[in-house]
Amino acid sequence: MALKQAKVITITSVKGGTGKTTTALALAGILSNKKTKTIIVDMDLHSGVVAASLNLKAKKDIYTLVNDYMNHGLKDLDEYITKYNDYIDVLPAPKDPRSVGKINSHYIDVILKKLKYRYDVILIDTNHIIDDINLITFDNSDSIIYVITNDLMNLKNMKTMLAIYKDMNLNNFYLVLNEALSKDKVDLYTINSFLEKNIDYVVPSNAFIKNMRKILMDGKIITLEKAYQKEKPILVLSEMLDKILK
Ligand SMILES: Nc1ncnc2c1ncn2[C@@H]1O[C@H](COP(=O)(O)OP(=O)(O)OP(=O)(O)O)[C@@H](O)[C@H]1O
Ligand SMILES: [Mg+2]
Asked: I want to staple 112 with a disulfide (CB 3.0 to 4.6 A). Which of 77, 140, 164, 195 is the partner?
């Protein structure tokens, strides 16, 4: 059991398909390599794929946890958590998306607060929608990582989000430009000028993994694979984690 409260790192975006889940899994692998007790909470409630990506056969998920909690109180949180390896646990998204509407965000708040006493790091994978669940998640986060690509709509939405952060006087977020999934060729200076804010980290285009399908089929985490350890994209994510966890 962790002595201090966990650092909560949320991975989000302003559009779908920017590489959030891949980033969350990669970060979990880096933390596991450092023997850091980590849980990935799949808060992409409608279409979470964390458990499926890791080939986990989870019997319980966030919905069963919230539902049991509401009806009988919380007995044993561990029962709802699925283990990936010695350092990575997973709290999966609901298996049945029809149950998502029944999840009261109050319980998400309580559950996140309880998890903070059990782990060193909580990694939360989200969807890109601003709803009650994500707002509660953001409120519980020490750091929020926005994974963006350089397509214009993504940058425009990010600019809107930056205005909201400025308005709320919050700056606990990082901008990660994922060039591996960026189609356009736009230089960093142009992006920074457009956003009126500097990108914090660039995951370079060579982070594109040709055999991603095989990695997912095998339920592997790229950052746990020896062949990739010293690759630039992984070093970028490690550097970001070091900064966040400092
Ligand atoms: N570095 C990479 N190399 C190859 N394929 C990648 C890479 N990163 C992500 N992908 C693939 O791109 C797709 C989108 O990535 P991912 O699922 O991580 O994005 P996401 O932001 O979580 O998407 P969503 O908004 O749907 O949850 C997936 O099929 C994923 O396997
Ligand atoms: Mg995802």
From this structure: 140
